[in-house]
């Protein structure tokens, strides 16, 4: 039965075993070259390193009526970030439209708002978002500190 299926002939053939290691080496080289090209397309490994931005409003508790908010934009290390756009908009408290400001050299953006608490509420919040400077290694994925609006 062993000879009937020709196993004897395959057992004596060494050619497939000789070609196997070189094929593995070629596949490895092609795989590494492909990975290198893909990483270069993503602007290198350093392009993947980003820092989270946070906004620290001052004051963070206000009353209804017109007032200025100083919004300090900082990176993960607490250093001020210049050129970020800060956006203040309705949360559970109301303001007229959306207010924006750009952070200066000290990382602070000043925005004038006139918040109001909704009917039957004693307090509400204003949402603060930040858009990182163009071309920077910053992101804003987490929620920032909200501004609390308290009725007097």
UniProtKB/TrEMBL annotation:
It comes from the Archaea. Keywords: Membrane, Transmembrane, Transmembrane helix. Residues 48-112 form the DUF7382 domain. The keyword Transmembrane helix applies. The chain crosses the membrane at residues 20-42. Coiled coil: none annotated. This is Carboxypeptidase regulatory-like domain-containing protein.
């Amino acid at each position: 039965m062993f000879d009937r299926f020709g196993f004897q002939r395959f057992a004596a053939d060494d050619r497939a075993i000789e070609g196997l290691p070189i094929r593995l080496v070629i596949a490895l080289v092609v795989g590494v070259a492909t990975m290198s090209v893909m990483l270069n397309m993503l602007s290198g490994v350093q392009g993947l390193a980003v820092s989270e931005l946070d906004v620290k409003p001052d004051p963070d508790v206000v009353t209804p009526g017109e007032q200025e908010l100083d919004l300090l934009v900082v990176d993960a290390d607490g250093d001020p970030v210049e050129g970020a756009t800060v956006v203040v908009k309705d949360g559970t408290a109301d303001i007229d439209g959306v207010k924006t400001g750009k952070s200066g050299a000290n990382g602070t953006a000043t925005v004038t708002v006139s918040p109001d608490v909704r009917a039957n509420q004693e307090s509400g919040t204003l949402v603060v978002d930040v858009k990182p400077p163009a071309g920077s290694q910053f992101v804003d994925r987490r929620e920032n500190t909200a501004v609390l609006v308290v009725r007097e």
